[in-house]
Q: What sequence folds into this?
């Protein structure tokens, strides 16, 4: 205890940490990345833990972080410095997405417009990754932004902004109706600017847990249910106005907003958005029932309670 409080020991510790960081930076900066890749495979989690716990050396440790990304070639890992060097002109943030695996991240709907427009997205595939990045907050004066949360803040032209506002105005009665159908399940329903093909997606509020973090915390043996309820991010439904599914549902709403089929379609859209956005289904049985009913109606056969007599051959 006495030695730990010694000024000489504190100086020695500080110098050792500095020399270690300098050595790691030298290895990371070598022309061949094999040496650092070997180190990262064994001690990458320790670097991430350092980002969380060592606030004094956080900026130095951030330069040693490595992640897979939407622009990784053959599974190669990218540094934050490489990300910043390759950023699009006018890009103000570093985008990332937390998921169970790289393959799962690639398929998530949050990436559709970003990747299509040439933005790079980092894939955080280990449970510690999201905590580390959340503690980092910034790198090289660039904010780190979770693409599964609201308000991406993408740069858009005046023409695109005007078009988005016009679309939002056109769809407002429809989004208000969806918000009424979903009730307390969502905070609000808005028109999305991040989707290209997927009909709808669920994003979380900026300061709450993401779907990935919520899933991790649920798996904790000593988890606090009250804390989870408090920290869970409010869900926001974003719809794709160009999706054929949303256009069909909007048409049914305009014909009859009390139509049972329209409400059932809206419920199925919400449940599929839960799944594709990384959340767990709250009521799998209700989801299955709605799908079966819609399949029967789509096939032209209304649900019937009459028993069908088997034909004896």
A:
């Amino acid at each position: 205890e006495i030695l730990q409080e010694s000024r000489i020991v504190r100086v020695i510790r500080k110098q050792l940490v500095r020399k270690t960081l300098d050595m790691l930076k030298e290895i990371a900066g070598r022309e061949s990345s094999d040496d650092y890749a070997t180190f990262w495979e064994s001690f990458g989690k320790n670097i991430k833990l350092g980002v969380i716990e060592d606030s004094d050396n956080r900026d130095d440790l951030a330069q040693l972080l490595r992640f897979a990304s939407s622009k990784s070639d053959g599974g190669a890992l990218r540094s934050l410095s490489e990300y910043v060097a390759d950023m699009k002109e006018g890009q103000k943030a570093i985008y990332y997405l937390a998921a169970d695996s790289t393959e799962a991240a690639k398929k998530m709907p949050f990436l559709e417009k970003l990747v299509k427009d040439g933005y790079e997205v980092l894939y955080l595939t280990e449970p510690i990754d999201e905590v580390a990045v959340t503690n980092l907050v910034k790198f090289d004066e660039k904010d780190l932004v979770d693409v599964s949360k609201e308000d991406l803040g993408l740069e858009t032209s005046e023409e695109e902004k005007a078009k988005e506002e016009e679309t939002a105005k056109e769809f407002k009665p429809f989004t208000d109706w969806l918000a009424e159908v979903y009730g307390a399940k969502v905070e609000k329903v808005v028109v999305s600017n991040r989707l290209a093909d997927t009909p709808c997606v669920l994003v979380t509020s900026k300061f709450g847990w993401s779907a990935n973090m919520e899933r991790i915390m649920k798996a904790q043996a000593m988890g606090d249910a009250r804390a989870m309820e408090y920290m869970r991010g409010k869900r926001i439904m974003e719809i794709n106005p160009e999706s054929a599914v949303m256009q069909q549902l909007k048409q049914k709403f305009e014909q009859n907003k009390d139509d049972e089929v329209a409400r059932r379609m809206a419920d199925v859209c919400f449940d599929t958005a839960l799944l594709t956005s990384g959340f767990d289904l709250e009521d799998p049985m209700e989801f299955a029932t709605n799908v079966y009913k819609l399949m029967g109606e789509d096939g032209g056969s209304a649900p019937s309670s009459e028993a069908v007599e088997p034909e004896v051959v």
